[in-house]
Design brief:
The structure holds 2 protein chains of 2 kinds. By secondary structure, chain A is α/β, with parallel strands linked by helices. Chain A has helices spanning 7-19, 33-36, 39-44, 56-69, 79-85, 87-95, 124-129, 142-153, 200-213, 231-241, 256-267, 287-293, 298-311, 314-317, 332-344; strands at residues 4-5, 25-29, 49-51, 72-78, 102-106, 135-137, 159-162, 168-169, 184-187, 192-196, 218-222, 225-227, 244-251, 272-277. In chain A, strands 3-2-4-5-7-6-12 form a 7-stranded mixed sheet, with helices on both faces. A 5-stranded mixed sheet of chain A has the order 9-11-10-13-14, sandwiched between helices. In chain A, strands 1-8 form a two-stranded antiparallel ribbon. In chain B, helix 6 links the parallel strand 2 (145-150) and strand 3. The chains are: A alpha/beta, B alpha/beta.
C-alpha cells in the first residue's frame, strides 16, 4: 500500500521550516490551528503566529494590511470560510490591489471527515478562479503540498492553496519538482486523456489501472495549477489522444472541468466529459461512503471514461477524409443506392 | 488646548477651498458623493497638514504614517487634499470618475499616489488598518496608522471584528476616527416622516468603550478640538483609541446639511450658483 500523508501536516511543517529562512512570514489563524496544523508554528515559532479569532472577514483584511507593510501572511482557515465568508474582503482588499497574501484552504473537497454540508467545500475552485490576480493551486499529495507551500511563499501576489484534510496516498517521490503553472504527466496512454486535480488525480491514476485491465490505455495528467492554467500543456495532452475526461472533487461547474473546457473549446475542441459533483451540496459521512455515494471513486472515474469512449468511438475523432476522391470498386447495388441518395437530397441554395 | 492660531486660519481657509473643489468636481463628473465628503474635510486636513509623517515626493516611503479612508465613497475630498499636498496636480481632481483617470470613484491604491489601502466596500478598510499596526509592531517600525470610518459604515460587522482583535492585542499604534455625521445613505424613517431619518448608530462612544477602546469625543469641524484629540489618541499607550468626531453631513452648504438626500446627489448649475457664495462668505469670515 502506498505511503499516506496528511497535507495539513505537510503544510504546517513546511511553514515552520520556512520561518527559519523567511523572517517576514506571519501565520494568521482563524482559531482552527489545531485542525489546520498552524499549531505547529504556534507552538514552535510563536513570533510567526497570531490567532485572529473566529472572525475571518477581519483576518483577511489584517492580512492585506500586513502585506502592504512587507509581511507575507499565510491564512489558516477552512476553504469554506476563506472562499465564501470573507469573499468581499478577499476581492476588494487582496485580489484587486494584488497583495501578497497566501490562503491555505483546509478541509477542501469532500474528504473533510463527517463535517457535512457547511464544511465540505466544492465550489472554492470556481469562486477563486473567477477572481483576477489569484493563483489557484490544488496539490495531489503531501509532497506536492510542501513544495507548493514553499513556492507560493516566494511567488509575489495573492494565492490559494487547496488542502485536503485526511491522509492521502503519496504519489510523488523526493525527485519531484513542483513547477507552478505546468501540468504533470502521471501516466502515458493513447485512448483518452484524463485530467485530474488535487487528490482526485490519485483516483484518476487508479482509474487508469482499472481501464488498463479492460484494454483501455489512459493518458493521465495532473493539473495542480488551476490558475493560471497551462494552455500549452492541456492542449498537447488533449491532442495526444483526441478525447478528454476531467475529474475533480468539486462541482462540475467552474472547476477543473470548466477550466479545461475553456482551454480546449478555444484551442483544440475534442470530445470531452466533465466528471465531478453533480451540482449538489453534500452531507456528513465517512469519506469512503461519500466518495461512493457521490460517484468519485476510481471505479466511477473509469466508468465515466468508458462512457466517453462509447460516445466518441475512434472513427468519430479521425480527421475528415481528404477531398481527392479515391477510386473504388463498387458493386452495381451500391451504385444504385448512391444514385438514390443523391436524388433524395434537397437542393442547396447559396450555403456551402 | 487650542492650536496655533496661524495654523488654524490656514486650515480653515483650506477647508473652504476643499469644499468648493468638492462641489465643482462632483458637478463636472456628474456623479459622486457630496454629504460625506463635506463632513470629513477637517479630519482629513488635520491629518495631511498637521499629523501625518509623510513625504509626498516619496508616497511609498516604508516608514510613513498610514491613513486609510475606509468610507471610500468620500474619496473626492481625499483626492483634493492629496493634490493640495503635492501628490499630483490639482487640475487632476477634475478627472475624477472619468475613464482612464487615476482618481477612481472609490480609492484604488494601485492607481493613485498616496493611497495606502484600497477601499469602497464599507467596513473593509478597518482590518487592513489593524494589519498595518500589527505589522509595524512586528517589524519594529514606529509609524502610526489612522483609520477614518463613517458612522453608517460601522453598521458593518467587520468593523467590530477588528475592534475586538485590536483590543485583544492591545494595539496602541492605531487610531480610529468615526466621522459621526449621523446620516446614512437612505436610513430608517423616523416618526412616520419620510424626510426624517434615524441616526445610523447610537451610543457610539459606549460601544467602542465596551470593546475595550479608549474613546475621545471631539468636534470634527473645529481644529481646536480635533487636533488635540488626535494628539491625545496617538499618545495613549496600552490600548487602541477611537475618536468620535461629531460632524455634519453636507457641512458648509446650508441646503445640504443634515439631509440624507444629499448623500450622493449631483448639484445642478443653479444649486452650485447658490452654494459657492455661501462658501465664499465663510472664507471672508475667517479672521485674518
Amino acid at each position: 500500500m502506498a505511503q499516506m500523508m496528511e497535507m495539513r501536516v505537510a503544510w504546517g511543517d513546511t511553514l515552520l521550516e520556512l520561518t527559519k529562512t523567511h523572517p517576514r512570514i506571519m501565520v494568521l489563524d482563524g482559531d482552527v490551528g489545531s485542525s489546520t496544523m498552524a499549531q505547529t508554528v504556534a507552538y514552535n515559532a510563536p513570533d510567526f503566529y497570531m490567532n485572529m479569532g473566529i472572525a475571518e472577514q477581519n483576518m483577511m483584511g489584517v492580512a492585506a494590511g500586513m502585506a502592504t507593510v512587507g509581511l507575507i501572511p499565510w491564512l489558516s482557515s477552512f476553504a469554506c470560510f476563506l472562499a465564501h465568508r470573507d469573499l468581499d474582503q478577499l476581492r476588494v482588499t487582496v485580489a484587486q490591489p494584488k497583495l501578497n497574501v497566501k490562503l491555505a484552504g483546509h478541509f477542501s473537497g469532500i474528504l473533510a471527515g463527517k463535517t457535512g454540508k457547511t464544511h465540505i467545500d466544492v465550489q472554492d475552485i470556481a469562486i477563486l478562479r473567477s477572481l483576477p490576480n489569484m493563483i489557484v493551486v490544488a496539490p495531489a499529495d503531501g509532497v506536492e503540498c510542501m513544495q507548493a507551500t514553499r513556492l507560493l511563499t516566494d511567488t509575489r501576489g495573492p494565492a490559494y492553496l487547496r488542502i485536503t484534510r485526511d491522509a492521502s496516498p503519496v504519489i510523488f517521490g523526493e525527485d519531484y519538482t513542483f513547477v507552478l503553472g505546468k501540468v504533470v504527466l502521471l501516466r502515458e496512454g493513447k485512448d483518452l486523456t484524463i485530467f485530474g486535480t488535487g487528490v482526485q488525480s490519485v483516483r484518476a491514476l487508479e482509474a487508469a489501472q482499472l481501464l488498463a485491465s479492460e484494454g483501455v490505455s489512459a493518458h493521465v495528467v495532473h493539473v495542480h495549477t488551476l490558475k493560471p492554467i497551462d494552455v500549452q500543456g492541456v492542449v498537447a495532452a488533449a491532442k495526444k489522444t483526441g478525447r478528454v475526461l476531467t475529474t475533480e472533487e468539486h462541482n462540475i461547474f467552474g472547476g477543473l472541468g470548466g477550466a479545461i473546457a475553456e482551454v480546449l473549446g478555444q484551442h483544440c475542441p475534442v470530445p470531452m466529459k466533465i466528471h465531478g459533483l453533480q451540482d449538489c451540496f453534500l452531507e456528513s459521512g465517512p469519506n469512503d461512503a461519500l466518495l461512493e455515494k457521490y460517484g468519485l471513486t476510481a471505479k466511477h472515474v473509469a466508468s465515466a471514461a468508458m462512457d466517453l469512449l462509447r460516445a466518441s468511438p475512434v472513427a468519430a475523432r479521425k480527421p475528415p477524409p481528404k477531398k481527392k476522391p479515391q477510386a473504388k470498386v463498387r458493386t452495381s447495388a451500391q451504385k444504385k443506392q448512391a444514385v438514390r441518395k443523391k436524388t433524395a437530397q434537397p437542393k442547396r441554395k447559396g450555403r456551402r | 488646548m487650542p492650536i496655533d492660531p496661524a495654523l488654524k486660519r490656514d486650515l480653515m481657509t483650506k477647508a473652504v477651498q476643499v469644499r468648493k473643489f468638492v462641489l465643482h468636481a462632483i458637478h463636472k463628473a456628474g456623479a459622486g458623493h457630496i454629504g460625506g465628503p463635506l463632513s470629513m474635510v477637517e479630519i482629513a486636513l488635520a491629518m495631511y497638514f498637521k499629523l501625518l509623517r509623510i513625504d509626498p515626493k516619496n508616497p511609498n516611503w516604508p516608514d510613513r504614517d498610514r491613513y486609510i479612508l475606509s468610507k471610500g465613497h468620500s474619496s473626492i475630498t481625499l483626492y483634493i487634499i492629496l493634490a493640495l499636498k503635492g501628490y499630483f496636480p490639482l487640475e487632476e481632481v477634475f478627472t475624477f470618475d472619468a475613464i482612464n483617470s487615476r482618481l477612481q470613484g472609490h480609492p484604488d491604491m494601485l492607481k493613485t499616489p498616496g493611497i495606502d489601502m484600497a477601499s469602497g466596500s464599507l467596513g473593509t478598510g478597518s482590518s487592513p488598518a489593524l494589519g498595518m499596526a500589527l505589522a509595524a509592531r512586528r517589524l519594529g517600525k514606529d509609524f502610526h496608522t489612522w483609520l477614518h470610518l463613517g458612522d453608517g459604515e460601522i453598521q458593518e460587522g467587520q468593523v467590530w471584528e477588528m475592534a475586538f482583535i485590536a483590543d485583544h492585542y492591545k494595539v496602541d499604534n492605531l487610531t480610529a476616527i468615526v466621522d459621526y455625521n449621523k446620516v446614512q445613505q437612505f436610513g430608517f424613517p423616523r416618526d412616520g416622516n419620510l424626510k426624517k431619518r434615524f441616526n445610523p448608530m447610537i451610543q457610539v462612544p459606549e460601544k467602542w468603550r465596551a470593546f475595550g477602546w479608549n474613546v475621545i469625543e471631539c468636534d470634527g469641524h473645529d481644529f481646536d478640538s480635533l487636533i488635540p484629540a488626535c494628539e491625545e489618541a496617538k499618545a495613549t499607550k496600552g490600548r487602541p483609541t477611537c475618536i468620535v468626531a461629531h460632524t455634519i453631513k453636507g457641512k458648509g452648504v446650508s441646503f445640504m446639511e443634515h439631509d440624507f438626500m444629499w448623500h450622493a446627489r449631483v448639484p445642478t448649475q443653479e444649486e452650485l450658483d447658490r452654494a459657492i457664495p455661501e462658501l465664499d462668505a465663510a472664507l471672508a469670515n475667517i479672521v485674518r
